[in-house]
Amino acid sequence: MATKLRDGNSVSSGLMLSDGIAAKWPTIIVFDSGVGGLSIYNEVRQPLPDARYLYVFDNEAFPYGEKSEQFIVDRIVAIVGAMWRLHKLDMVIVACNTASTISLPALREHFPCPIIGVVPAIKPAARLTRNGIVGLLATRATVQHSYTHNLINQFAPNCQILQLGAAELVDMAEAKLHGEMVPLPVLRELFRPWLRAVDPPDTVVLGCTHFPLLSPELQSTLPEGTRLVDSGSAIARRVAWLVEHNIDVSGLQSEAGPNRVYCLAATPQAMALMPVLTRYGFGSLEKLTL
Known about the structure:
Layout: E1 3-6, E2 27-32, H1 38-44, E3 52-57, H2 69-86, E4 91-94, H3 97-110, E5 115-117, H4 122-128, E6 133-138, H5 140-144, H6 146-155, E7 160-165, H7 168-177, H8 184-190, H9 192-195, E8 203-206, H10 215-221, E9 227-230, H11 232-246, E10 260-263, H12 268-271, H13 274-279, E11 285-287
Parallel strand pairs: 1-9, 2-3, 2-4, 3-10, 4-5, 6-7, 6-8, 8-9, 10-11
Helix pairs in contact: 1-11, 2-3
């Protein structure tokens, strides 16, 4: 059975400014094309439980993995712009690997607040691997993007990287949150090239934020001792550091109110997620109009 790891140690709870005064808590938007970003949100809220969180998922254009780059950039800028008009935002987390590799420059050009993206955890995986073979599990867009290739060249030049584009897992993760069973035979078939290899990867990067939602199923499918590495805790540390050191506290908007979720299409399937979202600490699900 595989072993679940994350990129580094967990961050400490609570947050104080350098002069010992308790920080004002920011309003943070967490965005994804689907519900995979909940895995990032769940990590970020551990050190920052008192921040206000607005989660947005674009179920109207889901999934992003097969969309054009220009479509993704235009779409995300429009969505964050709509949220910017509705709320006083202090930080934006793009909790989607595909979107992050494409849209961060445009978002930083349009919005005057910290923009945090998610990239595959190639660097920690290269440090953790024992046999020098790392599996990269991601959407096809992330696997093929030059940004990912640059990460590999920069942080894992001495490793063999076995890349697997698996958009099917995105749909499986979404279905799992709706209460459906994950088909393990399909997973075993997907991983057949790795499972039959003489030297399979001993460390697997979960290069899509949906994939940590499938960790138990992945652990039961991959060889004993395989490490699973995602970017959740690294993003949490980065966000906590920015709130403490890099955001002008006097400028925090500190908009009061409950944590809320927005979707782009108010479908019955989206509304059926409300029990799950409630468990994650959200009080409502609303349609966002562009």
